[in-house]
Design goal:
This protein has about 210 residues and is mainly alpha-helical. It has two domains: about 30 residues; about 160 residues, Protein Binding, DinI Protein, Chain A (2-Layer Sandwich), CATH 3.30.910.20. The protein is built from six helices and two strands, in the order αβαααβαα.
C-alpha cells in the first residue's frame, strides 16, 4: 500500500514537472495551482491589435469631421466679412444675417450630435474589447479551475506621479506572485480567436470594432 502511494506521488510529481516545462517552453510562466489569478486589463487594451486599428479609424473619421466643421467655420468668417460691406438694415444685410444665423445654429447642432456619436462609438469599441477579454478570462478560468480573477496593474509605481500612486493605492491587489498573472495567456487566447469569442465561451454579440 505504501509503495503504491509512493509511486503515485512520484508519477504525479513527474507529470507536474513536464507540464511546467511545456508551458515555459511556450515563453510564459505556468499559473500556480490557485483558485485566484490576476490580469492586467490596461496592458491588454494597449496591446490589443484590433482595438488599436479601430481607434486609428476612429481618429481618422474624427479628423475628417473636424475638417468639415473647420470649413463651415471659415464659411461663417467669410460671410461675416461680407456682411461688413453691407449697410445695416438693407435687404441684402438682413438676408445675409439670417443665413449666418441659420448656418451657425446648424453648425452648433451638428457639432453636438457628432460629439455624442463619436463618444458612443468609442465607448462601444472599449466595451467590445472588454467583452472579448471577459470571455477569454472566463473560458480559461473554467478550464483551469480558477474561481476568482482580479484586475491589477503591472506598471511600476512612479513616486513622483500622484496619479500613479493613487492608482496603486486603489488597487485591490497589493501583491501577487507572477505565476498567477494570466495577462500573457489571455492575450494569446485573444490572438488565436480574433473575433473575440473563445471556443466554448458565450458570445458577446456582434463585434463593434468598425
Amino acid at each position: 500500500m505504501r509503495n503504491t502511494l509512493i509511486v503515485a506521488t512520484f508519477v504525479a510529481s513527474v507529470l507536474a514537472i513536464f507540464a511546467a516545462i511545456d508551458v515555459f517552453a511556450q515563453g510564459r510562466p505556468a499559473p500556480a495551482q490557485s483558485p485566484v489569478a490576476v490580469v492586467d486589463m490596461n496592458y491588454i487594451f494597449k496591446k490589443h491589435e484590433g482595438l488599436s486599428q479601430a481607434e486609428a479609424r476612429w481618429k481618422q473619421d474624427m479628423q475628417a469631421a473636424e475638417a468639415n466643421v473647420k470649413k463651415d467655420k471659415e464659411r461663417l468668417t467669410t460671410m461675416a466679412e461680407k456682411l461688413k460691406t453691407y449697410r445695416t438694415g438693407t435687404p441684402d444685410y438682413k438676408k445675409l444675417e439670417e443665413e449666418m444665423t441659420a448656418l451657425s445654429v446648424q453648425l452648433q447642432t451638428h457639432i453636438q450630435i457628432q460629439k455624442k456619436e463619436f463618444g458612443e462609438r468609442k465607448a462601444k469599441l472599449f466595451y467590445a474589447v472588454y467583452s472579448e477579454v471577459h470571455d477569454a478570462v472566463k473560458y480559461w478560468s473554467d478550464r483551469n479551475g480558477v474561481n476568482l480573477v482580479l484586475q491589477f496593474s503591472g506598471d511600476p509605481v512612479d513616486p513622483n506621479n500622484p496619479n500613479s500612486i493613487a492608482n496603486q493605492l486603489s488597487s485591490l491587489v497589493v501583491y501577487n506572485h507572477r505565476s498567477i498573472d494570466i495577462t500573457g495567456i489571455i492575450l494569446d487566447e485573444i490572438a488565436h480567436n480574433p473575433k473575440g469569442v473563445a471556443p466554448g465561451a458565450t458570445k458577446p454579440g456582434k463585434s463593434n470594432l468598425h
